[in-house]
Design a protein that fits this description.
- This protein is α/β, with parallel strands linked by helices.
- The protein has two domains: 215 residues, Rossmann fold (3-Layer(aba) Sandwich); 190 residues, Glycogen Phosphorylase B (Rossmann fold).
- Helices cover 46% and strands 15% of the residues.
- It has 17 helices and 14 strands.
Length: 419
């Protein structure tokens, strides 16, 4: 089965590379360093590394506390962080700088992953969430490299898809030393697709162990006073195509009831910054880009954060927040960051990627889920009018985080046995 998979992957490589080139028209970083995806490097890197893979920004942000703890405990070791996306790469380099090596994850072809393993000689491989690559896992098994899937999650739909190719997936998972899942449901699904029961257990979600730097919170509060003074700031974070229009259209209606309202828009992908600006201006909304360093005035309608790595700070600069990817069928994004800065949080109906988190946060009345635009308008008005409601949400949000922390400790304790 792996032979057929490898043959198909070889046939698809030209298409995959063309897709990288095509994406480079909107996001030029995709065209850069593309040889790394074939494990071809222009310089020599340290070997005998502790290797951690985080697909993109969300996974990278979640794993940073664990990385820093490993660096502190194993200060003489070299660390390699791989990502798949340029935004993930930028975040790794911004946060960890030259304390780690960063390259893109190589394509899952036998010769490519073999070259990658030979160059870096990882002493341990730590994969975030659910990346299952048959050839890469087989190579780790062949080289006796302890391989862990941490913070593992698997939706019912993904499990259904994996179960259609059991020979491929189960064989790949046989090379895994341990799977540490977020929830019992994730644990059960990994076992269903072929993970050995004795190797699969619940460790919790390390995203709950989020630490917001005090400096970021202070900077956000300062930004609010200096730039947004007198405005009721509503941050719309991590938006996707189709979502920005919803909130820009809503703005005019809500503005009639809340004259001080300011929309702080944070598009998920950098290539959409200019698109969102155009959408706002088409609606005759006075718009400022953060990179312009212009100051908001009383008639500014929309402030677009066209910068990277500032989301936590911007959450701290707002009065209420909406987490995007949830008004269109993307599956939602991390609601824990805004909770961690004591921001009242709203999200939409599409939260399949964070189903248990969203279900549990609603049970604790620590956030508000809205099914449509009318519910959002009503909720924003209620949050504006009722300061006690806002305080209740933030207090419950802090308690929700506290009750679910500890996964980083549990994962670290397991990894220690192999380092």
């Amino acid at each position: 089965m792996r032979l057929l998979y490898t043959l198909l992957f070889h046939l698809l490589v030209p298409i995959v590379l063309l897709r990288l080139y095509w994406r480079g028209f909107k996001a030029p970083e995709y065209r850069k360093r593309w040889t790394e995806r074939l494990a071809i490097y222009k310089q020599k890197y340290p070997d005998n590394v502790i290797w951690i893979h985080a697909v993109s920004v969300g996974e990278a942000e979640a794993v940073f506390p664990l990385v820093k703890r490993l660096q502190k405990q194993y200060s003489s070791d070299n660390f390699l962080i791989t990502t798949t996306t340029p935004t993930g790469s930028a975040r790794v380099q911004n946060v960890l700088s030259d304390t780690v090596t960063h390259v893109y994850l190589p394509y899952d072809l036998p010769s490519v992953v073999s070259r990658f393993i030979k160059i870096f000689k990882p002493k341990i491989a730590i994969i975030m969430e659910k990346e299952i690559w048959p050839n890469l896992y087989a190579q780790c098994g062949k080289q006796n490299i302890p391989l862990f899937i941490i913070n593992a999650r698997l939706s019912a739909n993904s499990a259904k898809g994996y179960k259609k190719i059991p020979a491929l997936v189960a064989t790949a998972l046989s090379n895994v030393t341990a799977v540490m899942t977020q929830t019992q449901e994730d644990c059960d699904r990994f076992i269903e697709i072929g993970s050995a029961k004795e190797k699969t257990h619940v460790a919790g979600n390390i995203k709950f162990d989020i630490v917001i730097p005090e400096q970021a919170i202070e900077q956000g509060k300062r930004l609010n006073k200096q730039l947004f003074a007198g405005r009721f700031v509503w941050i719309i974070a991590s938006t996707h195509k189709g979502e920005d229009e919803i909130f820009l259209d809503m703005y005019q209606q809500i503005k009639q009831a809340i004259p001080s309202l300011l929309l702080l828009m944070v598009p998920r992908h950098p290539e959409r910054f200019k698109t969102v600006k155009r959408l706002a201006e088409e609606r005759q909304l006075k718009t400022i880009m953060r990179s312009s360093n212009e100051h908001c005035t009383s008639d500014t309608d929309v402030y677009i954060a066209d910068t990277m790595g500032e989301l936590k700070m911007l959450y701290a600069a707002a009065d209420i927040g909406f987490v995007g990817g949830s008004m269109v069928p993307v599956g939602g994004h991390n609601i824990l960051e805004p909770l961690a800065v004591d921001l009242p949080v709203i999200f939409g109906p599409y939260m399949i990627n964070f189903k248990q988190i969203s279900d549990n946060v609603l049970k604790m009345q620590a956030a508000v889920q809205c099914q449509d635009e009318m519910e959002i308008i009503k909720t924003v008005q209620q949050l504006y009018d009722d300061i006690n409601f806002r305080k209740s949400l933030t207090q419950q949000g802090a308690e929700f985080l506290r009750r679910n922390q500890g996964a980083t400790d549990r994962i670290f304790n397991v990894l220690e046995n192999y380092l």
